[in-house]
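Field: sequence (string)
Field: structure_tokens (string)

Example rows 1 and 2, in order.
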Amino acid sequence: MSAGQRTYDSLHMGRSSIDLYSNDVGAPFVEITSFAAYVGGSPTNISVGGRRLGLKTAVLTGLGVDPVGDFILHFLNKEGVETRFSPRKPGRRTSAVVLGIEPPDKFPLVYYRDNCADIELTIDDVLAAPVADSKVFQFAGTNLSKEPSRSATMFAAQLARQSGTEVVFDVDFRPDQWHDPRAFGVVVRSVLPLVDIVIGTEDEINASMLTDPAQMRLTHSQISDTRVAGDTERAIATLLSLGPKAVIEKVGARGARIHLAGGEVIEAPGYPVEIYNILGAGDAFGAGFLYGHIHGWGWRKSARLGNACGAIVVTKHGCANFMPTYDEVMAFVAERGGLD
């Protein structure tokens, strides 16, 4: 990819939070006795992951005038992520997430986002951010759940498109953040003409493409666990027809599939590891993929780096705080046959 001389490799817009991860790994949620405090929120995590790999990253999030906002800024500033475009929002609270860890397949999480600062990002906040001075603008689906963040994010994508900044959309389907999970797809489809690359799981892709009236009759509870059945290949084809040049489908331990607008499908195998905590693996993938993509590595190699970053993070306790450095991920892949 080429976007000329830009100050930032990537600008990441959306959620930020304090993440409280259970220290009682394997214990049912009701029996948790203590938590470890980390930084979280999908775009924020990706900004940290990209920075640790060597990208120059900036984050556009909203923070309350509170100690939790101080906690997040302190961590991001230590990491070298540019935070000066992330406004404090008086009267709003920095969000929090509480997470249980019951491997291999149970990771309950509870969001605390009432009166949330990051959903209060405005068009003025976007105008003050370096959208046109970044090679990539990346945002998450939860941005679109409420105003004013929804219109601010769409405006940012418009600015990016006008300035030649590549737009990357992480689907980030969090059904409990929507007044009706079916509205998620309605809004997503409206922003896709502004998007170059989509990254999501099979369930997220299906959720974003719910159009059949029978599917739309699903109840809130049927959708709310994010496991959305559907014809994924058809959903991807529909998604690509709306404008993106590529859909990157994350398929867990199997790695990722890159679906291109011309019909080509590229397989990028994963790196099998023993799962400790899956939370944050997708964000680690996003960081690794973006590093490779920005450096012109090609679809497969970029996704393979993303897979390696995700594999490392699923063996760790948290997310942003455990993103690998470039040297760490290169050592990891060297022991497993490399990126080719």
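Row 2 begins here:
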Amino acid sequence: MMKNYHFNLLLLTSLAGISLGAQAARQQVSTLAELCKAVQESGQTIVMKPGNYELTDLPKDARKIDCSGSNNTIDLTDVYVKVPVGATRGGYIYITGNNNTFKGGVFEDTYPSGLKQVTDFSSYNQDRSTLAKGLRGSEVLGVLGNDNTVIGTKLTVRGSFPYGYGSIYGIGRDNVFGLDKRCGIVVKGESNTIDGCEVQQRAFGHGIYIQSPADNTTVKNCLVEGRMRPSAELYDEKEEYDLPKRSDYKLPRDGKNLPIPIDVMLPLSEDGIRVYTHGGSVTVENCTVKKMRGGIRCYLASKATVTNSKAVDCGHTNFNMPKGGKIIGSSGNFSYAPLSDFRLAKSNQEIELTIIPSPHAVGPHNLADVQGNNHTIVFHRTDGPIDTDVRPIVVTGKGSTIRNETEYPILLESSASGNTIVSFGPVTDKGKNNKVSQIK
């Protein structure tokens, strides 16, 4: 009996130790300095006191939240962090450890004057010291470790040069007037998840992008939203220091010097969800991208599946996929760019897209440019009146099966051959050996 008593006492003591250990692992912080220190340790639940904070509360040379610890839950529910543009020259949230959950938090880049929306792009771009001040191309939030989850975080991204002209003056070394981007979220580790996040992109840069050595990335339940601007407005900028005036209202790239178009909408940011070369595989679920340069652009991924997602009002394309890519139960429009441009003619895609009518479409683009070979594609449409702007679905490749349940016409170019087309809308066949039938 005494032996059992000692055993039970030892067991209770051990359990108490575990309980105390679990309590000790929970850490409450109430300043950004405390948060920065806590996230360097591992195996904790770190809860920040709800409230308003400012990145400038941190020393000028240490304005970065570096989550270098692992196996942490970092809870920033009801935490708002103001980030004055120019307060830091680099990104200010990084998750470099592994197996962390970064939860909540609203981070907003702010201008000194309280300006929320740039409308005078001429004046804005003259004030690089306080307004048009980017992050040297960096992102606000970087996920560099593995097996991390960022959930329910909101970013409002402001401050870049130039802003208001999209990418017409170059996006890399070929930029004409200098370039200072500011992006939202980058993923560079393996098996990371971005869940329920929102990026309001008000600077030139990507919303969410994925780069080497990333792999097995999931982006779900997210919203990325940018802004568009009519290209004709650039002709109203007539001061000698205005960028359109300095470029003689031409596109000074590629040696062509073509006039700035007057009939398109310019996306003021880069892509909504973008995968770069060697960015690995990606899954996109239940996401929405609006008014970015490209919507969901996965064409350089090693593998990609997009499910139940929407991309609308983007400036260059709303969707594109890699070889063997899949789009399931998703939708988009063609207001300012093709629904999909099948970038680089990647083949063997399985596509199911619902077309959202775009009666106010502007610009010379097609509804979709079906490049590449051996696709299986189904086009649905949303309910509502027949669209009067019947731009074509243009097919240039071989061996695809396309079912078009919409009124939009299909044009098979001379290079199109061996395709099977079943269409409600009219079909023009300029190719060879295509099999065409109509849906009655």
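free_text_note (row 2): The CA atoms of residues 432 and 438 lie 18 Å apart.
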